[in-house]
Amino acid sequence: MVRFLLARPIAVGMTFLALLIFSLILFRTLPISLLPPLDVPQIVIKVAYPNTSPESIEQNVLRPIREAMVTLNGLEDMGSKAGSEVGNVRLTFSYNTQMELAYIAVNEKIDRLTNSLPEDLERPRVVRINTNDIPIVRLQVIPKDGVDFADVSLLTENVIKKRVEQLDGVALVDINGRQERVISVSPDKPVLASLGMQESDVIRAIEAGNSELPGISVEDGQFRYYLRLASRLETPEDIRNLPVRGPSGNTVSLGKVAEVRHSLAKPDGFHLYQDREGLVVTVHKQTSARMNDIMPLLYEAVQGFEEDYPQVEFALTQDQSTLLNAGINNLQTSLLFGGLFAFGILFVFMGDYRMPIIIGISLPSSLIISFAIFYFAGISINVISLSGLALGLGMLIDNAIIVLDNISRKRSEGIPLFEACVSGVNEVMSALISSVLTTLAVFVPLVFLSGISGALFYDQAVSVAAILSVSLLVAFIVLPLLYYLFFKGKDYQRSVEDSRLFLLLLKGYKRIYRMVFAYRAGSLLVLFLLIPLLLLTVRLLKVEGLPPIEKYDVMVSLDWNEPINANQNKERVLDMLALVEGDYQWAESDLGLRQFLLYEGDNDIQQADVFLMFENSQQKEAISSKLMRFLRQRFPLASVEIQDAPNAFDQLFSSDRPFFEVRWKDLTSKQPVAVSEMDPWLEAFPVSGWSKGPGLQKGASVIFRTDMKKLALYGLESQQLVEKIQQLFGNYLIADIKRFGEITPILLAGETLDFQTLLKTNYLYGEEGVPYALDEFIHFSYDEQYKFVTADRSGIFQSLTFDTSLSKHEEGTIRNWASGNNLAVEFTGQYFQDRETIWQLVGILLVSVLLLYFILAAQFENFVQPLIVIFTLPLGVGGAFLLLWLSGTSLNVMSAIGLVVMLGIMVNDAILKIDTINRLRKQYLAGGEVPQNALEKALFRAGEIRLKPIVMTSITTILALLPVVFSAGLGADLQRPLVVSVIGGLTIGTFTALYFVPLAYWFMAGKSKLSQPIVQ
């Protein structure tokens, strides 16, 4: 094939150029994302039920929802959490579930449940989790001083949101911090009392004045008209003019007995930017959109907003495209330095400028063509697929150097240029194909990992397969063609192609080779002993999910653990920000209940998340410590967590599940065990080191107990008492004004007094209008109750969480404790899922090793020689572990990718060296050499032939990666563990390929029965 193609250089060149242009066109259409568009198999059903206790939400809302969802196809796990006024049900499905259908099925079941749920409950929201749900940027909308907040809320909802949604590539816009305008009615109690009227008279007047005629029409001859009451309310003035009739028949206008005004609804949450109240708009991209194309449009739109709406200030924060740009910049840096160092190393070793130019053409061409495979495989350009390309670039350089070196060696043997190009490629073709297949055999099976890891590996596996396939195409067709064109008509000169430095290196290699083979048995034993010693260094490494990235931002997560309202929550956060004012660049905070449609975390008025950005890490650490001391001293009951602000990776990989959890259920009552009973049980819990789960967290509460006998004695109905309490302590809705799709609530304004005073100063009226104070019928007490009610598919549970796993003995003692208290106990948590993933990984790696063995056995036509390649892998892995430990780097996702990169290069070198030894042995035996001499000469000569490509590929890869080690920034922090593991593995791997492979070959050739006829 190579001969046929080289005979037609113009046709091949034009075809390759056309493929390159076509790939460039396809590249422009590829979506660019931070992460692959993964369907996380989870759906969250969110419930908002104002003024309702956790127990009531669990009993009346969440339990019916759970019972309805049990029959969903593919449902693996289900859990619910009921808090004060809010609750959620989290559904987890298997990864082969079609989430589009599951989402539809969940909504259908919610619709069927409508009649079974409380009438005043809003329809539960169904939120489907997707990586595109992670916002790419947050737009801050801050009203200037004196500007009405409700007007800015309407502007944001009706104008800014819609203008952002119209931008190309934007899928969804979500808002938090909205405040709606309401009409509040504050009755003047002394005036009402003097007129013999009550608050109920004011409420009835408003209800009557806002009545409508639904669906009533009249006929006027041949015409038909729908009726509309002209007295419908539209403004506060309309309400003030309503007549209020007292029990004695006297009538006054409502404005004389109550104050009616526009105001803001009582907030359940706030959003702050710096120390000012505002709104935040999160922007989510479409799956097929290019993130780098959306961001300029957003910045341009914000400039337009600033001009059009001068009453509002705007700012863009938490731009997630910085992570993507870091990955792209790292790839560009790798290409740039890879090309420069490849040029330098080739020039140093070969002394010819044409070799680097050939590689300089082939590298970017291969990269561009691989993007065409991305297009047809439906893969986006994201951080995961880019890391796969970076993985394959090392192999691509390796293949290029091997092919060029082999062609040059053929020319040095006096073979004509055309034949040298043909035979040089044909000689290494099968070995290169095997090396690519072995790399894929090691990597591709990881796609079958369960969970998000396996889904992410799909993009990486496709990108690796793409660039490795293209590298073979370039190595077999483009490189020999370019070599032929560049060297056509020029005489070969060895002094030009082999520099003095390489000749000096070759001399040193031969000297060490003779020393090693003089004590070959001892040398091989030492190398085998190094394998367990190097691998044991893994026990010294810290294991992490993602490498520690130097960030200048923190997230302060607060739960005050006190029954405070949203305004008090805001005041506390403002006090905290005032303490460090001027020490941070900017801050934003989400307090209380979140209004985001896609928010799936805990929603509680007592919680707050404060995001702070600093100039440097020193300032970040100092201020974080200062804040922690302040919060501990000022608010000792608060739960405080200060950590790096989560980026898109953290949000994707983070799990709400505790590491190890002990759950129990009361078999008798099937309800949470009472606080008074649970506290002594926990004191006798047989294992230490636990933390309370959500179902055991307590909060202060006030309990009203009604004196029903006294109500009956005074001739009062209990419903009167309930309505009065709702009017005093709830956001009592009198009516709604509906006009052109805009709804304005009319609320009864409550008094800002403590509840004891309100009970003493408000009354129920008997049959003859005799007033009775509410505290006559209500007795209150303070008590501690559970803040949350947690449940799974089998019912309500309570739990303790642990940061470490428990032993079998500890599990047994816990079971005995539970049995003694008539509790059913089970153990769950992330630990069990991680253990299952590890066992899957072990099985997959065993499959990978078997695939590797079978491919090599087919390549070498030998069942023993593949073991040499397999034995080289632990040495490389051990070298990577050693350098990771010496440099203080953890074992994480990026360093694991580096291991795969390094193993791909090591396998390549080992395969080619063994292939060369086999070929030379056959040549020497065919020439009449004694078998033992043929083996010795083949080992020595193969070392000479393969020295240049092995050393060049290792040095080129190491030097190309070194700049990342000494660089700073987000991208360098992400890639540094990968670089350290590659450098550590290749340092040992180069020595392994030069000396371990020939030693192991000598040993196995002498011991193997399969090779015995050759050696005799």
Automatic annotation (TrEMBL):
<feature type="transmembrane region" description="Helical">
    <location>
        <begin position="357"/>
        <end position="377"/>
    </location>
</feature>
<keyword id="KW-0472">Membrane</keyword>
<protein>
    <submittedName>
        <fullName>Efflux RND transporter permease subunit</fullName>
    </submittedName>
</protein>
<dbReference type="Pfam" id="PF00873">
    <property type="entry name" value="ACR_tran"/>
</dbReference>
<feature type="transmembrane region" description="Helical">
    <location>
        <begin position="978"/>
        <end position="1003"/>
    </location>
</feature>
<feature type="transmembrane region" description="Helical">
    <location>
        <begin position="436"/>
        <end position="458"/>
    </location>
</feature>
<feature type="transmembrane region" description="Helical">
    <location>
        <begin position="383"/>
        <end position="404"/>
    </location>
</feature>
<feature type="transmembrane region" description="Helical">
    <location>
        <begin position="838"/>
        <end position="856"/>
    </location>
</feature>
<feature type="transmembrane region" description="Helical">
    <location>
        <begin position="950"/>
        <end position="972"/>
    </location>
</feature>
<feature type="transmembrane region" description="Helical">
    <location>
        <begin position="893"/>
        <end position="912"/>
    </location>
</feature>
<dbReference type="InterPro" id="IPR001036">
    <property type="entry name" value="Acrflvin-R"/>
</dbReference>
<feature type="transmembrane region" description="Helical">
    <location>
        <begin position="331"/>
        <end position="350"/>
    </location>
</feature>
<keyword id="KW-0812">Transmembrane</keyword>
<feature type="transmembrane region" description="Helical">
    <location>
        <begin position="464"/>
        <end position="486"/>
    </location>
</feature>
<feature type="transmembrane region" description="Helical">
    <location>
        <begin position="517"/>
        <end position="541"/>
    </location>
</feature>
<feature type="transmembrane region" description="Helical">
    <location>
        <begin position="868"/>
        <end position="887"/>
    </location>
</feature>
<keyword id="KW-1133">Transmembrane helix</keyword>
<dbReference type="InterPro" id="IPR027463">
    <property type="entry name" value="AcrB_DN_DC_subdom"/>
</dbReference>
